[in-house]
TrEMBL record:
InterPro entries: Glyco_trans_2-like, Nucleotide-diphossugar_trans. Residues 18-153 form the Glycosyltransferase 2-like domain. PANTHER family: GLYCOSYLTRANSFERASE (PTHR22916), UDP-GLCNAC:BETAGAL BETA-1,3-N-ACETYLGLUCOSAMINYLTRANSFERASE-LIKE PROTEIN 1 (PTHR22916:SF3). It holds the Pfam family Glycos_transf_2. It comes from the Bacteria. Keywords: Transferase. One of its GO terms (molecular function) is hexosyltransferase activity. The keyword rRNA-binding does not apply. This is Family 2 glycosyl transferase. It comes from Novosphingobium subterraneum.
Length: 296
């Protein structure tokens, strides 16, 4: 069983934001990520660092923050586990979170100092379930920066196969459906799957038209290149189906979301080798929708 270590401060404010960071061999970037969290204008921070079996100096870098004296209201927690993948690490971190708000952040990305204060203020002003912001993609190799806007409504993200990026969203922890976890069976598109499942059950939200998250690209293509290539089409569809079946959203919403998701997955698949298995996937998907319709 993973053993958790923590700094001396105790996070006790009702406005605590838990930040879960999964880490695997990120000795070059994790300190920058941690510092971006600890220098937030919002001091009520519960920073949960989950090491996923790193073999470099990532653990040592994380542990030095346990020994530091932090601002009142800020606490740093550290836990390690054998290598199981980012989804398992996020699930562990989520199970340890105690804050009213929850944010997932990768160990090579950063957040501007005003992120948490801005989004929590917007959440409280609208009494919303979650707050969605814009974000920047910073290509460190090319020296470029591009703004991505998240102006869509939650269900539009699903129907258009667009992920708002998991770190652009701050959620009220209580609005995450009971038992919902990151899908450890998926080899890619895990954030796409988790966020779209969460957005499917969101009742109220607020959008902040400001870039409050920095996605760092180190090498290789842009984030948008190959975004849908290799997407596990039916696995994504089945994951959403199972989620909606467990967390009742009503028959109309159920059919609407799955139909739009299936249609756009179908369109995307024609650009990919997965189109060879598309007819089988669509038949299975249709059977699932019809079965639910007949029961309801």
């Amino acid at each position: 069983m993973a053993k958790m270590q923590k700094s001396e401060n105790q996070a006790s404010s009702k406005d605590v934001c838990s930040i879960v960071i999964p880490i695997f061999n990120r000795e070059r970037t994790v300190e920058r990520t941690i510092l971006s969290c600890l220098t937030q204008e919002h001091a009520a921070i519960e920073l949960i660092l989950v090491d996923d079996g790193s073999t470099d100096q990532s653990v040592e870098i994380c542990k030095k923050f346990l020994k530091m004296k932090h601002r009142p209201g800020t606490v740093v927690r550290f836990v390690s586990q054998p290598n199981q993948g980012a989804c398992a690490a996020r699930n562990l971190g989520m199970s340890l979170a105690t804050g009213n708000y929850l944010l997932f952040l990768d160990s090579d990305d950063t957040i501007p100092a005003e992120k948490i204060s801005t989004q929590i203020a917007a959440l409280n002003h609208k009494n919303a379930d979650c707050c969605i912001s814009d974000y920047r993609v910073i290509d460190e190799h090319a020296g470029s920066c591009e703004l991505f806007r998240n102006e869509l409504k939650p269900h539009q993200f699903i129907s258009r196969l667009k992920s708002p990026s998991n770190s652009a969203i701050i959620m009220r922890r209580e609005t995450i459906p009971k038992g919902m976890q990151w899908n450890v069976s998926l080899k890619r598109m895990q954030d796409f799957d988790f966020m779209l499942r969460y957005l499917a059950t969101v009742k109220t939200w607020v959008y902040v038209p400001k870039a409050l998250y920095n996605y760092h690209l180190h090498n290789g293509p842009r984030i948008s290149d190959g975004y849908l290539n290799g997407m596990p089409y039916f696995a994504i569809f089945l994951s959403m189906h199972n989620h909606l079946k467990i967390h009742s959203v009503g028959l109309y919403v159920y059919i609407k979301l799955l139909s739009l998701l299936g249609l756009n997955l179908m369109k995307a698949s024609f650009k990919d080798s997965a189109s060879k298995i598309l007819p089988i996937s669509l038949k299975r998907a249709l059977k699932l929708v019809l079965a639910r319709s007949s029961v309801s």
